[in-house]
Amino acid sequence: MKSIPKLIRRFVGIMLLSIILLVILNVAFYAIAFVRNTPEFSPWDMAEKTAAALQSTDKGFLLPEDIAAKLKEQNAWAVLIDNDTKQVVWQTDNLPANIPMRYTLSDIAKLTRGYVDGYPAFTGEAPNGLLVLGYPRNSFWKHTRASWDYDFIANLPKNTLMLLAVNIALIFLIYAVANSKLLRSIEPIINGIQDLSRGGPVCLKEKGVLSELAENINKTSDILQKQTWELRKKETARANWIAGVSHDVRTPLAMVMGYAGQLEGSRNLSEDQRKKAAAIVKQSKRMKDLINDLNLASKLEYDMQPLTLKQENAISIVRQVVVDFMNMDIDDRYPIEWKTADSIPACYITVDRELLKRAISNLIQNSINHNEKGCGIYVSVEADNNNCRICIEDSGIGASDEQIDRLNNTPHYMVCDTNTTEQRHGLGLLIVKQIIDGHGGKVFIDHSEYGGFKVVLVIPK
Amino acid sequence: MSDDYLLNKRILLVDDEQELLDMVLSILIEDGFQNVKTAKSVKEAIEEAEKFCPELAILDVMLPDGNGFELMEQLRKVSGDYPVLFLTACGEDNDKFKGFRLGADDYMIKPFLPKELLFRVMAILRRSYKDEDPLVQLQDSQIDFSCAEVIKNDEHIPLTAKEYDLLSALYRNAGRIVTIDALCEAAWGNNPFGYENSLMAHIRRIREKIELNPSQPVSLVTVKGLGYKLIVKGN
């Protein structure tokens, strides 16, 4: 089945896209939150700045007004510890009471990393001493034991990428495991639906996630098969009925035709009587053609006439039909002209020889039947790379644009599913269309350049 | 050439309908056939055939006690190999092909015109019993099929094998057009494509033998693009 890889590709694509999108969104969100919550300056910078600004004068240490104001604003306090004595030699006014005034080396190490009595402390190097800046409790969180393996940090980009890859693989695996069962149960269903559309019988196993669907498809198939069979039965019955009737009519008609034919040629009868016999012969011939046509048309319509397809030279078939007509005593009123160019000796197509002969003779017979006063009939075969075109034209009365349009575009009454009141025409053209359809070809009806009717049969090579 | 000798041939006519038998009988007799016997069933037909030794059988396919195909085989067993023409109401191509496959000489579907029946009967008889009157009369010469030669101005001109094949195909359909394809098939067999030029050459040589003026043929005439026609005197 073609659609499953497509389905997987599509799903994994959507998953990946959404994960990447989520990561980007999260990163953006944290970045914004981080920027928003960062103070205008780092407390370490403030400590350095304060230490640098502290001036040692005769009257002791002096902090410039602006820095002092800033510290006050931030509620921070500061002390200066002397390098030699480890004692506080200067302090701000707001120093909380519990802050010790003497420090040992370990005190200093501890406060640098962490807090003084719960106040986060930051240090700056002043001349001869260490400035300690204390911020209010809970205003900063200090990472007191931060340290990472060097390689870990160095390999961080590589590791991140690997992690991502593993994640993608994991997602795929989870998807495959979760869906394989579903996909497995979808496959026969899709196959079933495809069979259904081809008209074949379908029988799916009714279990698994989609058992209900399978059951419904089976039911649909049963209904369709039953309907097709019923229809086929009806069509067969109808075709058999027509075949039976036409068979039974043949023998009585043979008697009518035989005796009338004898009378027509009898020298004992008067001219007038012979004419009457000739009329009977002519009409019984029409009936014979009608029976043959009706039988063949119904068989072709209900697919009961199997095609015996063979490679044949279309030119030789058409030539045979034309010669058969010329050998039949049709009178001089219907001269047939062979218009095929000598340059194409053969045009091979895969056809049922007898049926194609029937189609062509129907067309020639049509020209004769519709032109009581006589007409020229022109037959030609042309070939191009893909098709063979057989053209039968006449110089007779032809048909109006409207009639030609109707012949080209509306179904024949025999295969038309609506009631029609239009004047009924014979089955000749219907059979031609059915035969050519059966060969995958097309029939075109048009005005002829010779003045009458023109039919072109296009049959694929 | 006269086909009169063919009118003496013994013909056996089998059909289960008396009226149809009467009609065909009257058609044949009116045309001059003198030895026609009829039968209405397989049994009758075999009895008749043993006594009568027919030279042509005209059979219906559906008979009350069997079918015509079987009858044909039995008839040929009891009274020798002679041509069979089927005359039937079964219009199916398959039946027709079955008949030909079993060795029928022709197959006619009812209804038919008397003229058509007579033409086919004559064609079969002429084909089967041609050597009784081997000389075919043409405008300027005669063809002797038994010796494969043409007699023109008292001169005997032999025919080659291909010329013989072509002339017999044309003669079997004397007075009718035979297509180029059918002639090629008669001379070169089943796959006759590509022999058109050879055919023209052979036709030219035949004309030199049978015509007084080969460039203005009167017996073997061309029907442009379609085929050739042999015109036999008195036909």
Task: Write up this protein.
The complex is a heterodimer of chains A (461) and B (235). With 461 residues, chain A is α+β, with helices and mostly antiparallel strands. Chain A is 54% helix and 16% strand. Chain A has twelve helices and 14 strands. In chain A, strands 4-3-7-6-5 form a five-stranded antiparallel beta sheet. In chain A, helix 8 packs parallel to helix 12 (428-438). Chain B has 235 residues and is of the alpha/beta class. Chain B has helices at residues 18-30, 42-52, 68-79, 93-101, 114-128, 161-172, 180-188, 196-210; strands at residues 10-14, 35-39, 56-59, 62-63, 66-67, 84-88, 106-109, 135-137, 142-144, 149-152, 155-158, 177-179, 220-223, 227-230. In chain B, helix 6 (161-172) packs across helix 7. Chain B is elongated, with a radius of gyration of 20 Å. The model of chain B has no long low-confidence stretch (mean pLDDT 87). Chains A and B meet through helix 7, helix 8 and helix 9 of A and helix 1, helix 5, strand 12 and helix 7 of B.
Question: Measured on Cα atoms, how large is the radius of gyration of chain B?
Answer: 20 Å
Cα shape of chain A: rod-shaped
What low-confidence regions of chain A span 5 or more consecutive residues with pLDDT below 50? none
Calculate the terminal CA-CA distance of chain B, rounded to whole Å.
7 Å
**Count of alpha/pi helices of chain A:** 12
Kindly state the percentage of residues in helix of chain A.
40-55%
The chain-level mean pLDDT of chain A equals: 86
- DSSP helical segment count of chain B: 8
Rg over CA atoms of chain A: 52 Å
Low-confidence stretches of chain B: none
Strand order of the largest sheet of chain A: 4-3-7-6-5
The average pLDDT score of chain B comes to 87
Number of strands of chain B: 14
Q: Proportion of β residues of chain B?
A: 15-25%
Most extensive interface between two protein chains, with residue counts: A-B, 36 and 36 residues
Return the string of H and E elements of chain A: HHEEHEEHEEEHHHHEHEEHEEHHEE
Structural class of chain B: alpha/beta
